[in-house]
Amino acid sequence: MAIDRLNGRAAAAALGAAAALTALLPLPARAQRIENSVAIFAALDKVTAKISRLEVPLNQTASFGALKLTPRICYTRAPTEPPKTTTFVEVDEVLLDGKEKRIFTGWMFADSPGLNAVEHPVFDVWLTDCSHPRAPVRAAPAPAAPPGARAPTPAEEPTDPDQPRRRRVPR
Q1: Which of 4, 24, 32, 63 could connect to 136 by a Cys-Cys bridge, CB 3.0–4.6 Å?
Q2: Rg (CA), the chain
Q3: 17 contacts: CB under 8 Å, gap ≥ 6
Q4: CB-based contacts of 85, cutoff 8 Å, min separation 6
């Protein structure tokens, strides 16, 4: 019986030490998003089979055939990190009567050009890169935890820095 009590205390001490060491380990490093001032697109004219490179500054509009592209934001990562180039873009088509019709609004991903590329009967447009970095986007500091609240475990932390963090509301 005394041996069982000692084994239980030893196990509890080992478990406590393991929990303390786990709390001291740093969280995995996360890549910072770099905001750029120019989005680079590839545009295909399906009639002539000509591919053009379009470098469009943010919040400015470039024309390709009957299309007008206006990038709003363009993010990349450091060259030492896995690539993840994204842009939010609006694409309008100039119709024969001169009116403009919005045919695409959303995110484009350079590593998955077919995922959210502009599909048009005559033109295709997709993101290839961003250039002219401004500065890394800084993550907002985490709010202080209320007294008695537990810290999130690494399994609860989001693994992708581009995904919003979820907060659990104490009940």
Answers
A1: 32
A2: 25
A3: none
A4: 74, 75, 76, 77, 109, 110, 111, 127, 128, 129, 130
Domain range list for the chain: 34-135
pLDDT at res. 37: 96
Between the CA atoms of 62, 63, 67 and 72, what dihedral angle is there, to the nearest 10 degrees?
Answer: 0
Beta bridge partners of 52: 43
- CB burial string 36-69: b at 16+ within 10 A, e below: bebbbbbbbeeeeeeeeebebebeeebebbbbbb
Residue linked to tokens 């120019």: 38
Query: What confidence tens digit (pLDDT) does each residue in 78-97 have?
Result: 888 988 999 999 999 999 99
As to burial, measured by CB atoms within 10 angstroms (0-12 exposed, 13-18 middle, 19+ buried), residue 116 is middle
Report which secondary-structure segment, H or E, holds 23: helix 2-24
What is the model's pTM?
0.61
> Is the torsion defined by CA of 107, 108, 112, 115 positive or negative?
positive
